[in-house]
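Lecture notes, unit on binding sites. The following record was shown on slide 14. It pairs a sequence with 2-oxoglutaric acid.
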Amino acid sequence: MATFKPIDLSGLIDERKASSIKAQIAEACEKKSYFQVINHGVPIEIMEELREVGHKFFDLSKEEKLAVAGKPYIGAEGYGNSMILTEPKFWREFLEVRILPLSERRYKYWPQQPAEFRETVEKYSAAVLDLTHRLLAVMSENLGLKPTYLRNAMGHTETQQNIVFQCYPPCPEPENNFGLHAHSDIGGISILMQQGEGLQVAAEDGTWELVPPYPNALVVNLADQIEIITNGRYKSAQHRAIVNRQGTRRSYVTFYHPAMDQKMFPAPQLVDAKVGPLYREFFYKEYWHALPAKRVIEKRLIHSFAINNSVSS
Ligand SMILES: O=C(O)CCC(=O)C(=O)O
Ligand SMILES: [Fe+2]
């Protein structure tokens, strides 16, 4: 397949084109675990506004940024600087806030500056959520499931959404540093806007493929819960962020997670009667809390949820 060509979602509403678009999505999910989309329905102006808000935030003084620092500076929420504050060190600064559920929003981690932060994040994340729902419906159909299957399997209206603003400054020794080490995202799907080259996804043979930024495109990464629900038919994308000497790279990642109390299990329709399910049942919060505080996973976390370790690494 043409690995890097973004999929044009405008065709989804045109009956003559929809089946070919759906087939492209199915092929990408099966073979690559990620794809890029254009004409995705997230307004370009809102994408620009989000980038602008990110730039303004990271341009603030260290003290201003530390006003929304998370404790202990890595992980769940707030501002973090992995170059100085964490072990192992990554070459990045970041700001993470939880958007959904509303009850989990903690505005103390939402910066006051720039003043338009909250409004912009709300607009952008709502548009990305709508895109997420449309993609999950197509993926469900592609798997022979009801269009609502994947969304319901993750909690329907109770699902969680987070956003991370990533900022990777120029690095004097890019060969010895990572912006983010190899990992898969733990939730359902992640939608990423990148500014500058640096995202790499592992191909089937284990080599790293660069995901080139396209103007106004969004990258869709399948995450661990999709691998579990599809009983391994779709795999989560193994990816990492590399850094460079020349300039700051940025990315804006919206994570869609199941509800904490959602029971996760492989879709019975996708379980081979002879082999059985590859993953055990669990509540999503168990998976969430299994992530080590340092976010460094030596082995894929999903393996500890496999039945009889039947899934090879
Ligand atoms: O910056 C990137 O391209 C990757 C970010 C990422 O993988 C993450 O935030 O989980
Ligand atoms: Fe990631």
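Take-home: The radius of gyration is 19 Å.
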